[in-house]
């Protein structure tokens, strides 16, 4: 990727989104110049040491005051090699880069509350120690996982495996390793390992780890209802509205912990200000279930009421009448 491609990506994938509508209306024809004064893309790759930055970018370290690390692969069943490179060693590489920034005031790592795996009850705001597995299995080591991935890829290459075979094998390997050590999927497993590497290499960095739960659409800012892509709740809502889902295996009293994305952003900014210049580690769970729990049964009732008032229309204008979803406990 060159600088031109990086600028195009900023405009098409970020600034060009409807999220920036309010700023675009406020600044009118001056919007582009307003953004260019504040946003400059730098070509890099978090999966590489020093983020893949060239010698030409070395002086930029001196100008860095704050780092927010939110780069991640969030698919639950992603290829193990890709998720390990971004979610796990990407966190390690960010810490390494941060340690070269002499004027750094704060580093924020955006993790996930689900690194806790299958734990229940109150979850402590502490980090996993290196080698500590959620299932209590001994012998767990992040570097061993990296060697396993590298050796598996090498074997597949030697055997002349197709791209599909490599992709499927890497996905299966990630799930297998995650479940063996007690995590439900590749995403949270690799994020947990990323926290382990942060813990091991952080030194005296002013560091905050934010652990949001399921991120949902904006509550208020810059306007209600915006979200990038579809989250788990949105998928269920759409399938319900289209008449594809009438039965769910679940308990209506189950708490669905969801937090609006603007609240997550505000919590990150607040954590930056509160912990700048402090050579210590702070962990914040960014969630809602303790003070404002949302129950699965309530969520499904809201979906039903919405589509009863604003039904979905199929092709040729055929009305889809929603039905109440039945919950069946396993």
Automatic annotation (TrEMBL):
Under the heading Gene3D superfamilies, the entry gives:
NAD(P)-binding Rossmann-like Domain
Task: List the catalysed reactions.
Answer: a long-chain fatty acyl-CoA + 2 NADPH + 2 H(+) = a long-chain primary fatty alcohol + 2 NADP(+) + CoA
The record, for CDD domains, names:
FAR-N_SDR_e
Please name the GO terms of the biological process aspect recorded for this protein, alphabetically: long-chain fatty-acyl-CoA metabolic process; suberin biosynthetic process
Question: A Gene Ontology MF term for this entry?
Answer: alcohol-forming very long-chain fatty acyl-CoA reductase activity
Supply the name of the protein: Fatty acyl-CoA reductase
Keyword Oxidoreductase on entry: yes
Provide the Thioester reductase (TE) domain boundaries: 2-268
Task: State its Enzyme Commission number(s).
Answer: 1.2.1.84
Superkingdom of origin: Eukaryota
User: Any idea what job this protein has?
Assistant: Catalyzes the reduction of fatty acyl-CoA to fatty alcohols.
Q: Where does this protein come from, organism-wise?
A: Chenopodium quinoa
Spell out the SUPFAM superfamilies in the cross-references. NAD(P)-binding Rossmann-fold domains
Q: Provide the alphabetized UniProt keywords.
A: Lipid biosynthesis, Lipid metabolism, NADP, Oxidoreductase
Q: Which family does it belong to?
A: Belongs to the fatty acyl-CoA reductase family.
